Every structure is written in structure tokens, then in C-alpha cells.
Amino acid sequence: MRARLCSPQWSGVVRALGEELATELSDDELRRLMHRVGVRFASAHPLADARTLTAMAAAANALWAQMEWGRCMIDEQPDGIAIRHCLAPTALVFPDAAWPDGFLEGVYARWFVDAGMPAELAVSALPAESIDVRRFRVARAQPGSP
Questions:
Q1: Interval 79-89: pLDDT, tens
Q2: Hey, is 75 helix, strand or coil?
Q3: Quick check: is 8 in a domain?
């Protein structure tokens, strides 16, 4: 399954683009850029009827499956909402970089805003569980978050 995460026709182009951007931007600047790209992507791909976490995960997974971008699990936790995204293609292309998670952070942030997330909350990337599992959290916004 992992071998199919990024099409051979795109993996070299995406890797070269990421490497070039990384020479011009700091990791934080690159993460913020990817966050904005994710917001733009989510704006173009809104989730239908995402009024509950179950509905949001189902709608997101329908889109991710169509795109072969893995799948997500969204769960309520005592201190916020946990999002685990499995098998994102960017993890294969950039296995040792944290900045590509900015894309998914931006996607989920926009989807949660569209679903009515209060302004004092934010989606933040957490350290990855593994190369195959990227983690995010919805909780009170930290100063300086995008």
C-alpha cells in the first residue's frame, strides 16, 4: 500500500519542489505555507453535512479514498479533539520532515471552521506517531499559531 502513496509521475516533481522551497524558507515558514495551501484545498473541497465528528470523518474519508490520500480518524478526547491521518502521500516523499503536516493541518482547520469551530480553538499538528500516522489536535489556540 505504501508504494502507491505517491504516484511515480509526481513523486520526483513533488520532492524537487519541496527541496527547493526548503532551501528558500525556514521549516516554520514552509509549514505556514503548506497550512495556507491546505486551507485553499479544503475551501475547494468542502465536506457535506459535517455537523458531528462521525459525519466529518466519514465525509473526509470519502474524499481521501477518492484521492488515495489515506484515511482519518477523529475522536473526542478529554482535552480536545484528536485527529489521526494515516497514509498521507507527503509522508512517503518527505519522511523526515514535519513541515508537510502543515497541509493537513490547514485542511482540517478549514473543515472545522466550516463546521462551526469557535474562534478560540485551532487545529495544530503534533509530532507524528509514525511515518504512516500523522497527528493533529483541536484545542484552545496557542499564541502564534496560523
A1: 999 999 999 88
A2: strand
A3: yes
